[in-house]
Amino acid sequence: MNPICPYCKRVSETVSGEVIYPHMPELRNKTFYLCSKCMAYVGCHPGTGRPLGSLANAETRKARLRLHFIFDSIWKKGIMSRKNAYKMLVDKLGIKKKVDCHIGLFDINTCIKAEEILTNLIIEETW
Questions:
Q1: Burial, 11: exposed, middle or buried (Cβ in 10 Å; 0-12, 13-18, 19+)?
Q2: What is the DSSP-derived secondary structure letter of residue 44?
């Protein structure tokens, strides 16, 4: 079954990358789920119908991208391993299962909280 839109509760439709990114031919053959009412969407793992996260509107997509940039800079700069950074987020955000700690599943409020946690970590490490 296609994912349910978290904003309007409608069932999403399966579309090609051509619908989401018509100006990017390299994404034409990728699979996405789209809520045409809210314009929320999520991509799928290559060759599957398994979503990469949850459907997200423009605001949530921007927040996830910003958070990913901060998160990735932490492990790429050696401040903390990727695994430990996720573990820290699980603990500090109060997420019950490690598997649910995936930026692609975060709503806007969780992104904001996680961004604050990670920004504080960077500040602490650079002082």
A1: exposed
A2: B
Closest of 117, 1, 118, 106 to residue 57, by C-alpha: 106
Domain ranges for the chain, please list them: 1-55, 58-126
Give the angle 77-79-83 at the CA atoms, nearest 5°: 100
Q: What is the pTM of this model?
A: 0.89
Q: Can you read off the two tokens belonging to residue 49?
A: 């119908």
Spacing of C-alpha 84 from chain mean position: 18
Q: What is the C-alpha to C-alpha distance for residues 43 and 37, in angstroms, rounded to an integer?
A: 17
Model confidence pLDDT, tens digit, residues 19-43 = 999 999 999 999 999 999 999 999 9
Do residues 41 and 56 lie in contact, with contact meaning Cβ atoms separated by under 8 Å?
yes
51 closest CA partner among 68, 29, 31: 31
Let me know: does 29 contact 81? Beta carbons within 8 Å.
Answer: no
Q: What pLDDT, in 10s, does the model give residues 62-103?
A: 999 999 999 999 999 999 999 999 999 999 999 987 667 899
Q: At what angle do helices 108-126 and 82-93 cross, to 10 degrees?
A: 120
